[in-house]
Amino acid sequence: MSCRLLQSGRHSLSLKTLTPLKTRAAEARYCTALYSQIRHRHRNNSFCHRHATSVPALSLSSLSPAGMELSKVVSVLEELAPLSLAESWDNVGLLVEPSPPHTVSTLMLTNDLTPAVMDEAKSKGVGLIVSYHPPLFRPIKRLRCSSWKERLVVQALERGVAVYSPHTALDCLAGGVNDWLCGGLGAGSVDVLSQAQCSGPTGHRLEFRVERKDELNTILSGLTDIPGVSYQHSTARSADGEVASVSVSCPSSALTPAVQLLSKHSTVYSTLTVLQVTKPPLPDHGQGRLCTLDQPITVALAVQRIKSHLGLAHVRLALGAQCTLESTVRTVAVCAGSGSSVLQGVKADLYLTGEMSHHDVLDAVAMGASVVLCEHSNTERGFLTVLQERLSARLGPAVSVRLSERDADPLTVV
Ligand SMILES: [Zn+2]
């Protein structure tokens, strides 16, 4: 187990049987069954059904949905996958917002927002596209129809279609994309590879003591002038009179000016302690997973299960050094999408991801890990069926939640 794993949360998957997936409807039933069996193990080794939700049947009513204000739909999306879970480099949340009021009666889920998906959205009267990958990622300085990505934004606004992206918030989520990907491997326990942290302020706390009241007033006055600084203090009697204990919270940008201020008061400065404030880890949430199977399987069976779970006829396989198709797989490192950075250096019998560079595959193979590559979005798209169920359950009959029929990985094996 790598040192990164020591700080990770762990939960259990209990999947007893694996059924080949023929249709999306079959996949939906399969995912519901799977997620009703995920259990998260807590420190006291008790189990809870945190993600065990009973999902009502999807509404296929012929009546037109009444619709829901966009801001309310966005609130539901943010509740399902809090944006604070997303990586700092990501661009998540509501990306395109038509002029309010904007009512959403049909929401369409897609892995990628392509021109074909945008045309589909128009033909189906979609008011909100939830695109797992953010179609807007880099800053743009113009909106012209000569660029296909800019044209999508122009069309979205012209047609009154909002666009939302959850991306890495869904990857990190307990019960999110990566846990879904683990679900096809078999019964076992799951560790998070790169632990997510709670949202909240970070920075520093300064603690010091002041004996003279006039000096205390001078220091507190100076601290008030530094942006972002807050403080609290209490006084206690000592043999020499009163002593004030001061605790100052400040962002990183305020640390240097705050310390400079205190350094002008040598007696106070000698009592100064600087503490770094960090966010606590968020159990079960984070990037990547390490599955430890209860019953070891062969590489060949692992490949078969992965194909079945993802509904794929082909995957790419690199056998680890000294490995054959009959070699034992007990641990599988998993990362949806592009897994190189998250999986790098992780000790496992098998890596499962969408894509890795040639040289990263060579590194993994040299470590003795076999690698299964399924193409980027094939490791993500199937989760949209799970998301469809969760959204339908939360939004109710007011909003029709449907899957894009035009969304597909651009690569196929021919
Ligand atoms: Zn991706």
Descriptors for this entry?
Udp-n-acetylmuramoylalanyl-d-glutamate--2,6- Diaminopimelate Ligase, Chain: A, domain 1; single chain; 20 strands; five-stranded mixed sheet; 3 domains; nine-stranded mixed sheet; disordered N terminus; Alpha-Beta Plaits; binds zinc ion; 414 residues
Explain what the structure shows.
- The chain contains 14 helices and 20 strands.
- With 414 residues, it is an alpha+beta fold.
- The chain folds into 3 domains: 160 residues, NIF3 (NGG1p interacting factor 3)-like (Udp-n-acetylmuramoylalanyl-d-glutamate--2,6- Diaminopimelate Ligase, Chain: A, domain 1, 3-Layer(aba) Sandwich), CATH 3.40.1390.30; 142 residues, 3-Layer(aba) Sandwich (Udp-n-acetylmuramoylalanyl-d-glutamate--2,6- Diaminopimelate Ligase, Chain: A, domain 1), CATH 3.40.1390.30; 75 residues, Alpha-Beta Plaits (2-Layer Sandwich), CATH 3.30.70.
- Helix 2 crosses helix 14 and helix 3 crosses helix 14.
- The structure holds zinc ion.
- Zinc ion (ZN) binds next to loops.
Give the DSSP E fraction (strand runs of 2 or more residues).
25-35%
The main sheet comes to: 9 strands, mixed
Distance between the termini: 38 Å
Distinct ligand kinds: zinc ion
Query: What would CATH call the homologous superfamily of the largest domain?
Result: NIF3 (NGG1p interacting factor 3)-like
The CATH architecture of the largest domain is 3-Layer(aba) Sandwich
Number of beta strands? 20
Low-confidence stretches: 1-9, 13-61
Q: How many helical stretches?
A: 14
Which bin fits the share of residues in helices? 25-40%
